[in-house]
Amino acid sequence: MREGVTVAGHRLTGRTRSSEVGTWADALSPDGRPSGVLRFDPVWTAQARERIVAAVGADVRLQQGGPIGLLPVIDLVAARDEVWLITAGATAVADLMGAGRLDAGGAATVLLETAQTLLAVHAAGLAHGALHPGTVVVGEDGAVLLAERGLLRAIRGEHASAEQDVAAWAALAGTLAAACARDRAAAVLRWASTAAPAQGLAAMRDTLLAEREAFPGMGRDGLAHAARGLHAPVPPELPVGAAVAASPGGEAVTLLDLSGTVDDPGDVMMRFGPGVPTETTAAQIWRSGQTAAAVTATQAREAAPRRRRRRSTAWAGTALLAILIAAVILWLRQPPAESLAVSGVDVKAPKKTVRCDGRADFTGVVTTNGEAGTIRYLWIRSDDREPLEQEQRISSGDTSVNLPLHWKVTGSGSFKGTATLRVLSPTTTGKPIQDKASFTYKC
């Protein structure tokens, strides 16, 4: 991507980095603030584009409720065959690590805020799906933000899960532990990397807060300073005579439509034809192109016959009213359209004993009446890990759906683990229904 090119008013400054879904470029917004532009690789289908729009739209709706820890989205635009995501400016943690500008305090801050953001995203029924140092970024104020949420999975047509995010967070903790020079800090991060899959992100967040003394400089100020020191200042304007293109692919058109509002009250819609209320003078002029005087004269000529028709019109109006009442009664007597309802839950656990540092894969089979809707459910584990309410969208015609749970176990010893799948709604009884199964671990 060439320096000086603009995308929807955001001027590229020349600094780029590769991503799993495309190429990021630093940019300047029309008001001179740092921004980021992600050009997606043109290797995906029209269906993938729709999933991208849905994923970005979900992020925007989350951000409308207040800061949630996701990289703020400015727009998603298309120019011919290219699609561009425009965001606030940020610096990838991978770049800070590569430049040696991430100390122990910064590493702990990255993990702490990333865990908090993932908890909020999971509570909203979403997941990230591609968490690593390249998709964790630092904003201008030092806030740790998540970029590219759901994008890689959307392109591939895959489903991202909270369990995958926890495993990715654990891997991130291990990577940052290796970069820490302080023995105590590295030990805490290594422990977090090992314990996260079993104990969950909330416990890891609380542990990092309790171990603040092991991470001098923990907080956003150090990260903000590290990010500012990584970039050279960008001139606010192009040199005289430099060429600026509207976009490499032509005029950019937004792909986001999140207004969700009715037509503006100031918009006027005029309809003409049978069954439409009597036209006003303005409407008649619009339809026939007559002058106001001609329309007024026509109305005067039609006034006398109108009086003679008044009785027949009244009778016709009464008959029409009776027909409408009968139609409403028939409509009210029609049975309502069926909605999604869950009638059964069946949980299957691994039959074989899970060995050292293994994983127990559960499958919850939910039986429905085949209608479309959204299932709300919880996976409850016997290790007292806090359950997370999740949602699964069901298409019409699907009479069953699989809800998986992956339980990672580490360490020596033996125990029996039980997982319960509880469907909260909608159920045929109106009450939650559940089933459970157990596995054995030996090491």
Automatic annotation (TrEMBL):
UniProt keywords, alphabetically: Membrane, Transmembrane, Transmembrane helix
Organism domain of life: Bacteria
Keyword Membrane among UniProt keywords? yes
Q: Where are the transmembrane segments?
A: 314-332
Question: What protein is this chain from?
Answer: Ig-like domain-containing protein
Q: Which organism is it from?
A: Microbispora maris
